[in-house]
Amino acid sequence: MNNVCLIGRLTRDPELRYTPSGAAVVRFTIAVDRRMSKERKMEAEAKNQPTADFISCTAWNKTAELIANYLQKGRRIGVQGRIQTGSYEKDGRTVYTTDVIVDTMEFLDAMQQGQSQMQRPNYGQNQGGPVNSAYSNEFNQSSNSFGSNSDSDFSDDMDGFFPIDNEDIPF
């Protein structure tokens, strides 16, 4: 079984690219804190030792577009995927790589009050649903959840929507 789940923060803004065949791809790195006590973390920081691991990730298709459009450096993300290793030649030497290929992801930060409309999702233009849902490369929503958000987190995004009475539904 090759399955990994990570929660971390983006180390830089993701950059969307397209393959010659038109598939969207984004490579990004997330900083994942190591699990340690406060005392151990303070000791490690005092000795200039790492307290986080930096994990390279790759997402494809709609997932790549969502990450590139709605996440910036420092934002929290939950990813689920698989480990993939590879290698390439650089200056006559073989360089080995290890990446997480993202199958599903979830945005873990709530929308900031100061975000402009350009940074916010437009629910009417095929974005696949609310931003804080899990997305997959197969364009379907996942049942995996990395965090829970209350409905109040989305109150600003629900302008123009109104509650439906169950008696109004014909079935």
UniProtKB/TrEMBL annotation:
Keywords: DNA-binding. One of its GO terms (molecular function) is single-stranded DNA binding. CDD domains: SSB_OBF. GO terms for cellular component: nucleoid. Residues 113-155 are annotated as: Disordered. Transmembrane segments: none annotated. It comes from the Bacteria. InterPro entries: NA-bd_OB-fold, Primosome_PriB/ssb, ssDNA-bd. Gene3D superfamilies: Nucleic acid-binding proteins (2.40.50.140). GO terms for biological process: DNA replication. Residues 136-152 have a biased composition (Low complexity). Residues 113-135 have a biased composition (Polar residues). PANTHER family: SINGLE-STRANDED DNA-BINDING PROTEIN. Homotetramer. This is Single-stranded DNA-binding protein. It comes from Anaerosphaera multitolerans.
